[in-house]
């Protein structure tokens, strides 16, 4: 079974659905998937920081099983764990949201497998996930690709934490997760969870950029990460276009490689909205 982890609040639904569709639609293998989703209620920090709703997650689980009845979707509420580990810490107001921190609770959540692929929700797979998932990481805590900008501005092997293949057995031996959490509790870090993970690392494997392309889409790209990107025209500026913003993906990036995935997403999103409307009557 291929084990995957996403994290987020109720707003993660569009990313979760599109990313997972890309994984399922770009593989010919009948090997089942297990999609784990960490969520939590920290609405005391921001009203929108509420867990993914039961209705959305049940629809997601139904979608997963429609591709393979042996696949599964598991929702894990880590609210109590988060409060015990991170409440009031210097990085609680992280640059994105506190939901970026909760992947670092994986060693404390029952049922976490020995190997799993953590993914930010703003990714799409252009090629088969197995090309990444079965990378040899026996002697490493995790594998990750360089950050597109960080490899120039910080260090050639400065990694992006949006795609992380974890070897939990090795990570438990080295104390990777407790060390990262300790960094988050004691010091304000520029990139919060990513900085903490890098500082806590004993040994990692650097992957080719094709496993986390944050700026371009090539024929060999396995994962396209729709993170904030710098554009030079008509003037230097940044934009944060996500894959579920289908019109922008077409107009700004001129991508057609994901059209089958995005069309299926739009169909499913319409179906979900229709069901919600019916339930509200």
Summarize, please.
The chain is an alpha/beta fold and 281 residues long. It has helices at residues 13-25, 54-67, 79-86, 130-133, 150-153, 168-174, 176-186, 192-200, 246-253, 259-280; strands at 2-7, 33-39, 72-77, 115-119, 123-125, 142-144, 163-167, 204-206, 223-225, 229-231, 237-239.
Q: Could you please describe the fold and organization of this structure?
A:
This protein is 36% helix and 17% strand. The chain is of the alpha/beta class. The chain has a single domain, classed as Spore Coat Polysaccharide Biosynthesis Protein SpsA, Chain A, CATH 3.90.550.10. α1 (13-25) runs parallel beside α2 (54-67) and α7 (176-186) packs across α8. The strands form three sheets. Strands 3-2-1-4-7-6-8 form a seven-stranded mixed beta sheet. It has a two-stranded antiparallel sheet with strand order 5-9. The protein is globular. α1 links the parallel β1 (2-7) and β2 (33-39).
Topology:
Elements: E1 2-7, H1 13-25, E2 33-39, H2 54-67, E3 72-77, H3 79-86, E4 115-119, E5 123-125, H4 130-133, E6 142-144, H5 150-153, E7 163-167, H6 168-174, H7 176-186, H8 192-200, E8 204-206, E9 223-225, E10 229-231, E11 237-239, H9 246-253, H10 259-280
Parallel strand pairs: 1-2, 1-4, 2-3, 6-8
Antiparallel strand pairs: 4-7, 5-9, 6-7, 10-11
Helix pairs in contact: 1-2, 1-10, 7-8
